[in-house]
Amino acid sequence: MPDLPPEIDTSRPHPTRVYDYLIGGKSNCAADRETAAKVLLKSPNARIAPRENRAFLGRAVRFLAGDAGLRQFLDIGAGLPTTNNVHEVAQAVEPSSRIVYVDNDHCKSGCVHARSAGQTA
Predict the structure, then answer these.
(1) Tens digit of pLDDT per residue, the chain (121 long)?
(2) Partners of 75 in the β-ladder
(3) Where do runs of H (alpha helix) occur along the chain?
């Protein structure tokens, strides 16, 4: 993970980063992977729900950007940047799509700021 703000403790697992790991993302730490491994030992199918959730998000955004013609998206409770983010899916359908991500969890916003430093939308 990129340099993170000091208030983000990567020595402790965080549900958002565990979710990221379960869907195959890269925004997670050793503590998150260890926790996910323990969950998967008790519930080997624990990856199914998060991956289906992410797949539904992709289908919904593709429909909205394509068939429904939406060009502006507000992603509330956006989570960490991971695979198939709203902007990636929407802009693959229509490059002029604009997305605003909102989240009140300092872990998520800190990771997003660290990742997007120096990038333009």
Answers:
(1) 556 777 788 899 999 899 999 999 988 999 999 999 999 999 999 999 999 999 999 999 999 999 999 999 999 988 777 888 999 999 999 999 999 988 887 665 555 544 444 444 4
(2) 101
(3) 15-22, 30-42, 48-65, 86-93, 106-116
Radius of gyration of the chain from Cα atoms?
Answer: 15
Tokens standing for 20? 């990221």
Q: pTM for this one?
A: 0.79
Phi/psi of residue 74, nearest 5 degrees: -120, 110
Decide if 112 contacts 2 (C-beta within 8 A): no
95 vs 65: CA distance, rounded Å: 10
Q: Please name every residue paired with 36 in a beta bridge, in sequence order, or none if there are none.
A: none
